[in-house]
Write the structure tokens for this entry.
Amino acid sequence: MRRLPRAVKEALQKALDSAVLAVEIYNKPAVTFKSGGYITLMVIAWTSLFHAIFLLRKKKPYYRKSNGRFERVDGDYRHWELNECLKQYYGADTGNPVRKNLEFFIPLRNKIEHRSLPELDPSIFGECQAMLLNFDEILEREFGPKRCIRQLLSFALQIYPSAENLAEAVKRNRAAKAAADFVEQYRSCLSPEIFGNSRYAFKAFLIQVANHESKDVLPIQFIHYDKLTAEQQAALAPLAVMVKYRQPLVANADTMPAGQVAKEVQAALGNPIVMRGKKPVDKYNVGWHTKCWQRFKVRPASRSDNPEKTETKYCIYDKRHGDYGYTQEWVNFLIEKFRDDKAYDDLFLIPEKFES
């Protein structure tokens, strides 16, 4: 585990503590302010996580005045709120499902933090669960698996949901209606691809079954919908559920060549141009991409005796064609990594001259 600068370490610890406290509040049986407490603390957790990421990248997450100086409030720097952090982290990628999930909670927090609306909890559970899973995923990506919180958490003990659902609550509670209207309006504006993405909202069935004959079997397990028999799928069909299908196995369906990776990163980062001698070229081109897979060790060299030894999260070896395909996660990683110009300079050692 690498050592972190003090400011980064403090922001990261605040993020971890806030996330664990958020889950603890949500899972306490006696607490009725579940979603309100959870969302408020998770917004703090996400904001602090982004601050830690920016500080690690030597990018100060503070607002500036028109004269370039940092703004201060009561003597302290005015830090970026979560919404500004999302703009700085994702940039032009406005359709990212993780970003959409967090943008859902920013205004919702303002609506519920001064009210107690337990009727809302079951309705937004999918978004709340995704908010936590996404947090741990980015935490691992940016700071490594040893700093994840998943080993601290387990399934909460459950009984049946509240007898009163949100539809019934809005008939007697104006605050509940305002929150319900916001949830419905926000979801209706999402594309089917975003709404169906588990990074926006994680949904699953918890169905009671008989005890298994083996005492070693886990009491709760995830089973993919497409692994069920036709009869089992038919039994689930009448239920109001959004099912996320697993893509059938198709050669090269989820990978792309190096040239396409470079084009997607180039477009996402604003199509910048650099000068190669007297010739203007794309800043993020195939040559840049070659340096990236070498630097981040996602695949072996071209004449390796073991070409299949790749970082499969980012790169897959195609034995039939003798080449490599790259995943969307690799594209996302590069976009986020190279938002900071220093990452590009470090890759090439000598800074490039940009066209105005």
Observations:
- The beta strands are 72-73, 76-77, 273-276, 279-282, 315-318, 323-326.
- The chain is about 45% helix and 5% strand.
